[in-house]
Amino acid sequence: MELVELCLEQGLSRRQAAAWRRVSVSTVQFWIDRRRAASAEQVADGSWAQDRPSTPKRQPARSSDEVHDKVCRARERTGWGPRLIASELGMSHATVSRCLQRRGLSRRPALEREQVRRFEWPCPGDLLQMDTKQFARFSRPGHAVTGNRFKTSAEKREKVGKQFAHTIIDDHSRLAFTELHDDEQAATVTAFVLRALDFFADHGITARRLQTDNAWAYVHNRSLAQLLADRGIQHRRIPPRTPKRNGKVERYQQTLKREWGLGQTYRDSHARQAALAAWLMHYNTTRNHSSLDNRPPITRVRKQLRHNS
């Protein structure tokens, strides 16, 4: 509208108006022609200056509403894609695709996910969750923190191995205990659980249940079974392929990787391992936890101890 006013009312030339608005002369002439062809009502309400769809006013070859309804009913009934629907209805694949696109059905809706059911045991020690996460060893900062994926031939041949972060976390308070080890064998797991139980006992937490996945070192570990039996701790195993049942330790491991594993640049894996104790202390006593009203896990332990006393 401004271009038209400059030319028709202020007497500016087409070329001058085009240079002022940085458009072509043909664009200026296009809007002037549309303004002159508009009716008095269109000029009054300004509708002549509104963008118009490029779709033709008449589309004699367009599928009718009945055809659209037929295609949509087939989609809702079978859930098939356009090719199978086209075969059943005797239409072309392009026709079915356009019908589904116009009705907003070109993509199948996402499957309904199981409703989240949040659960928390009422007291510290009612349930401990245990899991293991692998971390690669390294002799220099890796691409995850440096962004540089280049490796020399010697670095490509270097076999540095893995480390395993064994973790037990309390379901109620989120108090966590983590150690790094070179393996996840039965003897290592049993010794770790023993130290973890002592750690929780030092904080006034008596373990009553220990929940794990179905890893061999958990399920077929006789020394672990004997330790739990001697302590009167029930060993619970989650169903296969359901890590969300161990959701609190799984979520903790994400935080462990992001804030400790990748949170800063270490010169090697030994420096990373040396920083674990300080980070774990920060997590348990300082770091705010969103599910605990932005308080650290240790506050829930102290609150429960005061309540019991």
TrEMBL record:
<dbReference type="InterPro" id="IPR012337">
    <property type="entry name" value="RNaseH-like_sf"/>
</dbReference>
<dbReference type="GO" id="GO:0003676">
    <property type="term" value="F:nucleic acid binding"/>
</dbReference>
<dbReference type="InterPro" id="IPR047656">
    <property type="entry name" value="IS481-like_transpos"/>
</dbReference>
<feature type="region of interest" description="Disordered">
    <location>
        <begin position="42"/>
        <end position="69"/>
    </location>
</feature>
<protein>
    <recommendedName>
        <fullName>Integrase catalytic domain-containing protein</fullName>
    </recommendedName>
</protein>
<dbReference type="InterPro" id="IPR036397">
    <property type="entry name" value="RNaseH_sf"/>
</dbReference>
<feature type="domain" description="Integrase catalytic">
    <location>
        <begin position="118"/>
        <end position="305"/>
    </location>
</feature>
<dbReference type="GO" id="GO:0015074">
    <property type="term" value="P:DNA integration"/>
</dbReference>
<dbReference type="Pfam" id="PF13683">
    <property type="entry name" value="rve_3"/>
</dbReference>
<dbReference type="InterPro" id="IPR001584">
    <property type="entry name" value="Integrase_cat-core"/>
</dbReference>
